[in-house]
Design a protein that fits this description.
Butyryl-CoA Dehydrogenase, subunit A, domain 3; three-stranded mixed sheet; Butyryl-CoA Dehydrogenase, subunit A, domain 2; 51% helix; single chain; globular; 14% strand; 3 domains; 390 residues; four-stranded antiparallel sheet; alpha+beta
């Protein structure tokens, strides 16, 4: 019998196709060569130097909007996109967020709800990484309840006038285009907003202790005048933004397992090399129990991600199933990182190892694009048929 792979005890690699493995290898190579040597420094600095060059490299690889069809997008499967998200987040959640916000939020919104003019104008450049997008939904006072947003869009002659503020918007300070959701007399509507529009600003948010290798900002709309053509033509209500969030949450189901794998790998290597009481700490029963539990939860989370990927490729994936995956995989990935930190002990808080970086990042991933509480209630409603959100 062949030797078992320590990071794949259940041989889940056998569930992936050759194409999926090829995507994994390509993304891992780019991360290894272009990002891994620098990402701890980026995290410490709280920025991504040369983000536009990195976006172009990611575009050249084909991962920006990779699961969308046409307009220069790669048209890959949902499972291939998931595998890419796992490898990106194994490097850093901030890098996966860059790709996810670009492809699954901004690009998907334009691809799904935009006019043909919107698609032709923005999607090819965004797929190439020569244009960066952001997605403006969350507000300072309204996160889990987007229906209470205060950003407004009112008609003024043939134009729209937008006023309001969005918060915690990935890519906003460097974006060329923002998809902004606003209250109108016709219900919630989406708008494609060039960031050079007069009255638009995106101050960067500093002093973060999580997702530091990600550029985050506000969106401030001060009487931003847009032509009628800037509005998404057909979609009304929260169906528009929630469909986009579901796309991004699916990527998180996979991405969280990347952070978990990286931390598990670091803990396993450290436990074998670190000697105490004249033997490696991997030889102690308590350490082995930690490693076994981490491996078990990683295996279950990855298996769930693969299964949901197959459902999405079959066109049968439901939003509550995405909530199930996001709730489980982020929660368990965070626990894996915390346990890995205990194995590394004091070294576990050093940026010389990836563990504390992943651990801090996942504290944000745990609550963005749906908090633990909201996804718990989504699952609870699916189980009981009774909504308990209010």
């Amino acid at each position: 019998m062949s030797t078992v792979a320590p990071l794949d005890l259940a041989a889940l690699d056998t569930l992936l196709s050759d194409d999926e493995k090829a995507v994994r290898a390509s993304v891992r190579q780019l991360c290894t060569e272009r990002i891994d040597p620098f990402v701890a420094e980026w995290f410490e600095q709280g920025t991504i130097p040369g983000i536009r060059d990195l976006a172009k490299e990611l575009g050249s690889l084909g991962v920006l909007g990779m699961h969308l069809e046409g307009y220069g997008c790669a048209g890959m499967t949902a499972t291939e996109y998931g595998v890419a998200c796992l490898e990106l987040e194994a490097t850093d959640s901030g890098i996966r967020s860059l790709v996810s916000v670009q492809g699954s939020l901004a690009m998907f919104a334009i691809w799904k709800w935009g006019s043909e003019e919107h698609k032709q104008q923005w999607l090819p450049a965004m797929a190439e990484g020569t244009a960066i997008g952001c997605f403006g939904l969350t507000e300072p006072d309204h996160g889990s309840d987007p229906g209470s947003m205060r950003t407004t869009a009112r008609r003024h002659g043939e134009d729209w006038i937008l006023d309001g503020q969005k918060m915690w918007i990935t890519n906003a300070p460097v974006a060329d285009v923002a998809v902004v959701w606003a209250q109108t007399d016709e219900g919630v509507r989406g708008f494609v907003v060039p960031t050079d529009s007069p009255g638009f600003s995106a101050p960067e948010i500093k002093h973060k202790m999580s997702l530091r290798a990600s550029i985050t900002g506000e969106i401030v709309l001060d009487s931003v005048r847009l032509p009628d053509s800037a509005a998404f033509p057909d979609v009304r209500g929260l169906k528009g933004p929630l469909a986009c969030l579901n796309e991004a949450r699916y990527g998180i189901v996979w991405g969280a397992m990347g952070a978990a794998r990286s931390s598990l790998q670091a803990a396993l290597s450290y436990a074998v090399e670190r000697t105490q009481f004249d033997k490696p700490i991997a030889a102690f029963q308590l350490t082995q129990q930690k490693l076994a539990d981490m491996s078990l939860e990683y295996t279950k989370g990855l298996l769930l991600a693969i299964h949901l990927g197959r459902l999405k490729d079959a066109g049968t994936l439901r939003p509550e199933q995405v909530s199930l995956g996001k709730l489980n995989n982020v929660r368990e990935a965070l626990e894996i990182c915390r346990t890995a930190r205990t194995i590394l002990a004091a070294n576990g808080i050093s940026l010389e190892y990836p563990v504390i970086r992943h651990m801090n990042n996942l504290e944000s991933v745990l609550t963005y694009e749906g908090t633990v509480e909201m996804h718990t209630l989504v699952v609870g409603q699916a189980l009981t048929g009774i909504p308990a959100f209010r």
